[in-house]
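Technical note accompanying the year-one report. For the benefit of new consortium partners, we illustrate the data format agreed upon in the data management plan: each record pairs a sequence with a C-alpha coordinate string. No post-processing was applied to the example shown here.
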Amino acid sequence: MSWFLRSHDARKRKSRPSSVRSPRPWDPLRTLAAVKLLLVLAVAGGAGYGWQFSREALRDYARRRAPVAVSAQDVVLADAPGWMNDPLAASIRDLVAAEIHGRPLDAGALGRAVGALRQSPWVELVSKIEQRSLNQVIVHASYRRPVALVEGRDGYHLVDAHGMRLPGLYSASQWRSLRLPLIVGQASAPGPLGKPWPGEDLRAGLALVAQLAPTGLAQHLEAIDVSGRDERGRVQLVLWTGEGRDRRRSAHIVWGLTPHAETPYEPDAGTKINRLAAVLSRRGAQGKIIDISGAAVWQREPVGGDVIRSAEYTEAW
Protein backbone atom coordinates (compact mmCIF):
# COMPACT_ATOMS: atom_id res chain seq x y z
CA MET A 1 0.00 0.00 0.00
CA SER A 2 2.70 2.42 0.89
CA TRP A 3 4.36 1.78 -2.45
CA PHE A 4 1.18 2.57 -4.25
CA LEU A 5 0.80 5.80 -2.39
CA ARG A 6 4.37 6.84 -3.14
CA SER A 7 4.03 5.98 -6.79
CA HIS A 8 0.79 7.89 -7.10
CA ASP A 9 2.27 10.94 -5.43
CA ALA A 10 5.25 10.82 -7.75
CA ARG A 11 3.05 10.74 -10.82
CA LYS A 12 1.07 13.68 -9.47
CA ARG A 13 4.27 15.67 -8.94
CA LYS A 14 5.50 14.95 -12.46
CA SER A 15 2.23 16.05 -14.00
CA ARG A 16 2.42 19.57 -12.45
CA PRO A 17 3.54 22.30 -14.83
CA SER A 18 7.05 23.61 -14.27
CA SER A 19 7.48 27.12 -12.90
CA VAL A 20 10.67 27.78 -15.06
CA ARG A 21 9.95 29.73 -18.35
CA SER A 22 11.42 28.49 -21.56
CA PRO A 23 13.68 30.97 -23.48
CA ARG A 24 12.09 33.11 -26.27
CA PRO A 25 13.01 32.31 -29.83
CA TRP A 26 15.61 34.68 -31.53
CA ASP A 27 14.02 37.73 -33.21
CA PRO A 28 16.22 39.02 -36.09
CA LEU A 29 14.27 42.32 -36.42
CA ARG A 30 14.92 43.31 -32.83
CA THR A 31 18.58 42.47 -33.21
CA LEU A 32 18.80 44.58 -36.38
CA ALA A 33 17.18 47.57 -34.65
CA ALA A 34 19.66 47.32 -31.79
CA VAL A 35 22.59 47.16 -34.20
CA LYS A 36 21.30 50.25 -36.04
CA LEU A 37 20.99 52.19 -32.81
CA LEU A 38 24.54 51.30 -31.86
CA LEU A 39 25.78 52.40 -35.30
CA VAL A 40 23.97 55.76 -35.06
CA LEU A 41 25.44 56.42 -31.63
CA ALA A 42 28.90 55.48 -32.86
CA VAL A 43 28.66 57.75 -35.93
CA ALA A 44 27.35 60.69 -33.89
CA GLY A 45 30.08 60.30 -31.35
CA GLY A 46 32.74 60.04 -34.03
CA ALA A 47 31.44 63.12 -35.85
CA GLY A 48 31.44 65.15 -32.66
CA TYR A 49 34.94 64.08 -31.81
CA GLY A 50 36.08 64.75 -35.37
CA TRP A 51 34.61 68.27 -35.37
CA GLN A 52 36.18 69.06 -32.04
CA PHE A 53 39.52 67.72 -33.22
CA SER A 54 39.31 69.67 -36.51
CA ARG A 55 38.37 72.90 -34.75
CA GLU A 56 41.20 72.62 -32.32
CA ALA A 57 43.60 71.79 -35.13
CA LEU A 58 42.40 74.84 -37.11
CA ARG A 59 42.80 77.10 -34.11
CA ASP A 60 46.25 75.73 -33.47
CA TYR A 61 47.14 76.34 -37.11
CA ALA A 62 45.88 79.91 -36.90
CA ARG A 63 47.85 80.50 -33.71
CA ARG A 64 51.05 79.16 -35.18
CA ARG A 65 50.78 80.85 -38.56
CA ALA A 66 52.63 84.14 -39.05
CA PRO A 67 50.52 87.30 -39.60
CA VAL A 68 49.39 87.77 -43.20
CA ALA A 69 50.38 91.06 -44.79
CA VAL A 70 47.48 92.81 -46.55
CA SER A 71 48.51 95.52 -48.97
CA ALA A 72 46.39 98.29 -50.43
CA GLN A 73 46.11 96.28 -53.67
CA ASP A 74 44.35 93.52 -51.73
CA VAL A 75 41.57 95.88 -50.56
CA VAL A 76 38.55 96.12 -52.87
CA LEU A 77 36.15 99.08 -52.56
CA ALA A 78 32.98 97.34 -53.68
CA ASP A 79 30.83 100.49 -53.67
CA ALA A 80 33.36 103.02 -54.99
CA PRO A 81 31.38 105.74 -56.83
CA GLY A 82 32.30 106.96 -60.28
CA TRP A 83 33.36 110.40 -59.04
CA MET A 84 36.03 108.95 -56.74
CA ASN A 85 39.47 109.55 -58.21
CA ASP A 86 42.46 107.24 -57.91
CA PRO A 87 44.33 109.16 -55.17
CA LEU A 88 41.26 109.19 -52.92
CA ALA A 89 40.55 105.49 -53.51
CA ALA A 90 44.19 104.67 -52.76
CA SER A 91 44.10 106.60 -49.48
CA ILE A 92 41.01 104.67 -48.34
CA ARG A 93 42.58 101.33 -49.28
CA ASP A 94 45.74 102.30 -47.39
CA LEU A 95 43.63 103.10 -44.34
CA VAL A 96 42.02 99.66 -44.38
CA ALA A 97 45.26 97.78 -45.15
CA ALA A 98 46.98 99.43 -42.19
CA GLU A 99 44.43 97.80 -39.84
CA ILE A 100 44.12 94.34 -41.49
CA HIS A 101 47.45 92.98 -40.28
CA GLY A 102 46.19 90.29 -37.89
CA ARG A 103 46.16 86.53 -38.21
CA PRO A 104 43.60 84.57 -40.22
CA LEU A 105 40.10 84.47 -38.68
CA ASP A 106 40.96 87.55 -36.61
CA ALA A 107 37.68 89.44 -36.37
CA GLY A 108 39.38 92.10 -34.29
CA ALA A 109 41.37 93.33 -37.30
CA LEU A 110 38.19 93.77 -39.33
CA GLY A 111 36.63 95.64 -36.43
CA ARG A 112 39.60 97.98 -36.25
CA ALA A 113 39.31 98.65 -39.98
CA VAL A 114 35.61 99.50 -39.61
CA GLY A 115 36.45 101.90 -36.79
CA ALA A 116 39.18 103.57 -38.84
CA LEU A 117 36.86 104.05 -41.81
CA ARG A 118 34.16 105.57 -39.62
CA GLN A 119 36.67 108.19 -38.50
CA SER A 120 37.46 109.18 -42.09
CA PRO A 121 35.76 112.41 -43.24
CA TRP A 122 35.29 110.84 -46.67
CA VAL A 123 33.21 107.92 -45.37
CA GLU A 124 29.54 108.52 -44.67
CA LEU A 125 28.53 104.99 -43.67
CA VAL A 126 30.30 101.62 -43.33
CA SER A 127 28.00 98.68 -44.11
CA LYS A 128 30.54 95.90 -43.56
CA ILE A 129 34.07 94.71 -44.25
CA GLU A 130 34.53 91.08 -45.17
CA GLN A 131 37.67 89.00 -45.64
CA ARG A 132 37.21 86.74 -48.66
CA SER A 133 40.59 85.06 -48.31
CA LEU A 134 43.76 85.41 -46.25
CA ASN A 135 44.77 88.54 -48.13
CA GLN A 136 41.63 89.90 -49.85
CA VAL A 137 39.36 92.35 -48.08
CA ILE A 138 36.07 93.70 -49.46
CA VAL A 139 34.81 97.07 -48.18
CA HIS A 140 31.11 97.99 -48.41
CA ALA A 141 30.58 101.68 -47.60
CA SER A 142 29.05 104.93 -48.83
CA TYR A 143 31.14 108.06 -49.32
CA ARG A 144 30.72 111.84 -49.12
CA ARG A 145 30.91 113.50 -52.51
CA PRO A 146 32.38 117.00 -52.78
CA VAL A 147 29.86 119.33 -54.44
CA ALA A 148 31.37 122.77 -53.85
CA LEU A 149 34.36 124.75 -52.65
CA VAL A 150 33.99 127.27 -49.85
CA GLU A 151 36.28 130.27 -49.58
CA GLY A 152 38.03 130.60 -46.23
CA ARG A 153 40.70 132.89 -44.94
CA ASP A 154 43.35 130.23 -45.51
CA GLY A 155 42.17 129.01 -48.93
CA TYR A 156 39.38 127.01 -50.50
CA HIS A 157 37.80 124.03 -48.71
CA LEU A 158 35.79 121.10 -50.05
CA VAL A 159 32.28 120.41 -48.69
CA ASP A 160 29.61 117.84 -49.49
CA ALA A 161 25.90 118.48 -50.09
CA HIS A 162 25.25 118.68 -46.34
CA GLY A 163 28.08 121.12 -45.67
CA MET A 164 30.41 118.47 -44.23
CA ARG A 165 33.96 119.71 -44.46
CA LEU A 166 36.16 117.32 -46.46
CA PRO A 167 39.96 117.06 -46.58
CA GLY A 168 41.76 119.30 -49.00
CA LEU A 169 42.83 122.94 -49.01
CA TYR A 170 43.36 124.68 -52.34
CA SER A 171 44.84 127.96 -53.45
CA ALA A 172 43.29 130.47 -55.82
CA SER A 173 45.29 128.97 -58.68
CA GLN A 174 44.21 125.39 -57.90
CA TRP A 175 40.48 125.50 -57.27
CA ARG A 176 39.52 126.13 -60.90
CA SER A 177 40.95 122.76 -61.94
CA LEU A 178 38.40 121.02 -59.69
CA ARG A 179 35.49 122.44 -61.74
CA LEU A 180 33.25 122.77 -58.69
CA PRO A 181 30.98 125.71 -57.76
CA LEU A 182 32.59 128.25 -55.46
CA ILE A 183 30.72 129.70 -52.45
CA VAL A 184 32.03 132.97 -51.01
CA GLY A 185 30.97 135.41 -48.34
CA GLN A 186 29.91 133.04 -45.54
CA ALA A 187 30.27 134.55 -42.11
CA SER A 188 31.48 131.57 -40.05
CA ALA A 189 34.87 129.88 -39.99
CA PRO A 190 35.19 126.27 -41.16
CA GLY A 191 34.40 123.51 -38.69
CA PRO A 192 36.48 120.36 -38.07
CA LEU A 193 37.00 117.81 -40.82
CA GLY A 194 34.01 115.52 -41.18
CA LYS A 195 31.72 118.00 -39.37
CA PRO A 196 29.16 120.43 -40.84
CA TRP A 197 30.38 123.92 -41.65
CA PRO A 198 28.14 126.08 -39.44
CA GLY A 199 25.98 128.85 -40.81
CA GLU A 200 22.62 129.39 -42.49
CA ASP A 201 24.32 131.33 -45.27
CA LEU A 202 26.39 128.33 -46.38
CA ARG A 203 23.32 126.08 -46.34
CA ALA A 204 21.58 128.59 -48.59
CA GLY A 205 24.48 128.50 -51.02
CA LEU A 206 24.49 124.69 -51.07
CA ALA A 207 20.73 124.68 -51.74
CA LEU A 208 21.38 126.80 -54.83
CA VAL A 209 24.24 124.49 -55.88
CA ALA A 210 21.83 121.54 -55.74
CA GLN A 211 19.27 123.50 -57.77
CA LEU A 212 21.78 124.37 -60.49
CA ALA A 213 23.55 120.98 -60.63
CA PRO A 214 21.21 119.30 -63.17
CA THR A 215 21.29 122.34 -65.50
CA GLY A 216 25.04 122.71 -66.04
CA LEU A 217 24.74 126.48 -65.54
CA ALA A 218 27.10 126.52 -62.56
CA GLN A 219 30.10 126.01 -64.83
CA HIS A 220 29.41 129.44 -66.36
CA LEU A 221 29.48 131.13 -62.95
CA GLU A 222 32.44 132.47 -61.07
CA ALA A 223 30.97 132.20 -57.58
CA ILE A 224 27.84 132.15 -55.42
CA ASP A 225 27.94 135.03 -52.93
CA VAL A 226 26.04 134.36 -49.68
CA SER A 227 27.02 137.59 -47.87
CA GLY A 228 23.97 139.63 -48.90
CA ARG A 229 20.85 140.14 -46.77
CA ASP A 230 17.42 141.53 -47.49
CA GLU A 231 15.57 144.05 -45.34
CA ARG A 232 14.49 141.25 -42.97
CA GLY A 233 18.01 139.82 -42.55
CA ARG A 234 17.44 136.79 -44.78
CA VAL A 235 20.21 135.50 -47.04
CA GLN A 236 20.12 137.18 -50.46
CA LEU A 237 22.03 135.08 -52.99
CA VAL A 238 24.04 136.76 -55.73
CA LEU A 239 25.80 135.02 -58.63
CA TRP A 240 29.04 136.28 -60.12
CA THR A 241 30.11 135.72 -63.70
CA GLY A 242 33.28 136.59 -65.58
CA GLU A 243 35.96 138.07 -63.33
CA GLY A 244 34.01 137.76 -60.11
CA ARG A 245 34.93 140.54 -57.71
CA ASP A 246 35.86 142.91 -60.51
CA ARG A 247 32.47 144.50 -61.03
CA ARG A 248 33.53 146.20 -64.25
CA ARG A 249 34.36 142.89 -65.91
CA SER A 250 31.66 140.65 -64.48
CA ALA A 251 27.92 140.52 -64.14
CA HIS A 252 26.30 140.23 -60.73
CA ILE A 253 23.01 138.36 -60.95
CA VAL A 254 20.67 138.70 -57.98
CA TRP A 255 19.05 135.31 -57.44
CA GLY A 256 17.14 136.24 -54.31
CA LEU A 257 16.16 134.10 -51.35
CA THR A 258 17.16 130.50 -50.70
CA PRO A 259 15.53 128.00 -53.11
CA HIS A 260 12.21 126.69 -51.76
CA ALA A 261 12.12 129.54 -49.22
CA GLU A 262 10.92 132.26 -51.60
CA THR A 263 8.20 134.72 -50.72
CA PRO A 264 4.89 134.68 -52.66
CA TYR A 265 6.14 137.71 -54.58
CA GLU A 266 9.24 135.90 -55.81
CA PRO A 267 9.21 133.54 -58.81
CA ASP A 268 9.97 129.87 -58.27
CA ALA A 269 13.36 128.28 -58.90
CA GLY A 270 12.35 126.97 -62.33
CA THR A 271 11.50 130.48 -63.54
CA LYS A 272 14.74 131.86 -62.15
CA ILE A 273 16.76 129.14 -63.87
CA ASN A 274 15.19 130.02 -67.22
CA ARG A 275 16.00 133.68 -66.64
CA LEU A 276 19.55 132.86 -65.59
CA ALA A 277 20.09 130.80 -68.75
CA ALA A 278 18.86 133.74 -70.84
CA VAL A 279 21.17 136.20 -69.06
CA LEU A 280 24.20 133.94 -69.46
CA SER A 281 23.49 133.47 -73.15
CA ARG A 282 23.54 137.22 -73.85
CA ARG A 283 26.54 139.40 -74.35
CA GLY A 284 27.06 142.76 -72.79
CA ALA A 285 26.13 141.81 -69.22
CA GLN A 286 29.61 142.63 -67.88
CA GLY A 287 29.63 145.45 -65.40
CA LYS A 288 25.88 145.22 -64.76
CA ILE A 289 23.73 144.05 -61.91
CA ILE A 290 20.82 141.95 -63.15
CA ASP A 291 17.99 141.11 -60.79
CA ILE A 292 16.03 137.95 -61.66
CA SER A 293 14.29 137.67 -58.29
CA GLY A 294 11.20 139.79 -59.00
CA ALA A 295 8.15 139.79 -61.19
CA ALA A 296 10.34 141.02 -64.06
CA VAL A 297 14.05 141.04 -64.79
CA TRP A 298 15.69 144.33 -63.97
CA GLN A 299 19.10 145.61 -64.96
CA ARG A 300 21.11 148.19 -63.06
CA GLU A 301 23.85 150.00 -64.86
CA PRO A 302 26.53 152.13 -63.21
CA VAL A 303 26.49 155.85 -63.82
CA GLY A 304 29.62 156.55 -61.84
CA GLY A 305 31.07 155.94 -58.42
CA ASP A 306 30.05 152.84 -56.54
CA VAL A 307 28.04 150.63 -58.87
CA ILE A 308 25.76 149.52 -56.04
CA ARG A 309 24.74 153.02 -54.92
CA SER A 310 25.05 154.94 -58.16
CA ALA A 311 22.75 153.17 -60.56
CA GLU A 312 19.75 153.70 -62.73
CA TYR A 313 17.16 150.97 -63.23
CA THR A 314 15.85 149.90 -66.59
CA GLU A 315 13.62 146.95 -67.34
CA ALA A 316 15.62 144.61 -69.53
CA TRP A 317 13.19 141.73 -70.13
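Partners are asked to follow this layout when depositing records. Residues 1-8, 305-313 have pLDDT under 50 and may be disordered.
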